[in-house]
Amino acid sequence: MFQITKNVPLPKPKKGPGSPGAPRKYPLPAMAVGESFFVPARGVTEQDAVVWRARSAIQYFRRNNPEKRFSIRRMADRVGVWRTA
């Protein structure tokens, strides 16, 4: 069971990745077609995590920018993200 309380002040929102007004982790809005950036990632597990986060960020960004397209590629020690359209 949960205890219900009254008059507990609501904490102020945290400013961090994912919160409104927070700086973006990846520079997707600033990228022109043909530009890329790289995220260091060693090993399959770390690359999986980077690819998952990048795909999620791209998917969220494309909600308001459906004409912009990106591709992700794994390399030996990093993951690259390219703007393709």
Q: Overview of this structure, please?
A:
It contains one helix and three strands. The mean pLDDT is 88. The protein has a domain at 32-83. A hairpin with a 3-residue loop joins strand 2 and strand 3. The protein has one helix spanning 43-62, and strands spanning 36-40, 70-74, 78-83. It is elongated, with a radius of gyration of 18 Å. The protein is an alpha+beta fold. The chain starts with 35 loop residues before the first strand and ends with a strand.
User: Could you estimate the helical fraction of the residues in percent?
Assistant: 10-25%
Order of helices and strands: EHEE
Q: What's the total helix number?
A: 1
Rg computed from alpha carbons, rounded to a whole number of angstroms? 18 Å
Number of strands: 3
Give the overall silhouette.
elongated
Q: Structural class per helix/strand content?
A: alpha+beta
First-to-last CA distance:
52 Å
Strand content: 15-25%
Mean pLDDT: 88
Tell me the strand order in the biggest sheet: 1-3-2
Q: Top keywords for this entry?
A:
85 residues, alpha+beta, three-stranded antiparallel β-sheet
List the helices and strands and how they pair.
Elements: E1 36-40, H1 43-62, E2 70-74, E3 78-83
Antiparallel strand pairs: 1-3, 2-3
Summary?
With 85 residues, the chain is of the alpha+beta class. It is built from 1 helix and 3 strands.
